[in-house]
Give the backbone structure.
Amino acid sequence: MTQKKMTTTFNYDFIQRTLRTTGIVVLFLSVIGLYYFPPYDILAFLTAGVWSIINMLFLSALVRTVLRPDNIDKMSAMVLMMVKFPLLYATAYFIFTTELFRPIPIVVGISMILIVMVLKAFSRVMLGLDETNQDEQEIQSNHKNQLRSVA
Amino acid sequence: MDYHTGLAIAAPIAIGMAAIGSGLGLGKAVGSAMEAMGRQPEAIAKIQVGMMIGAAFIEALTIYALLAFLLVMGDIAG
């Protein structure tokens, strides 16, 4: 009998799925919100949401490129840093300081990716998806070990 | 000291503290992640993804502080 272990298997696919889900949620809420809120608020929400997705894309690329013990691609790291820090943050400054957008929709738009990330992680734990994978892996490894011992 | 002067002194100090806190947090997270990668090279993918999520949250908190500062900047101008 295998003992169940609760583990969270976050891999690169988790980030990709989070970005995709955030994009869909932001677009969906923008369309729905057009009926209830002023257009500039929706535009601010959409802009901040898209900015946060691009920011997360660059952040994940930067972490994958730079934060590793070996084989660091210095050229890619430099390009990513040059795009993320001056360009992306200058865009954020423009979004924050423009007179068209109110701050609350911007905050909500930026927070969408964090909300999606937390809910996805929470639902994985609640549904026990990683637990099932762990059990399947254990069953497969046990099966392989049995086959090896027979052979 | 009137309201605007107090705000003009407090707001930059507050955002500076937020930036220092985020910097310290991110530095500790990166340091721990590198240490963990060195100890367990086979778990690099998991550590990096955890690092990405942590960095995103820390960065978002700094952005909130910046937004709060920009909000009160209008009051400072009077």
In short: The first helix of chain A runs from residue 12 to 33.
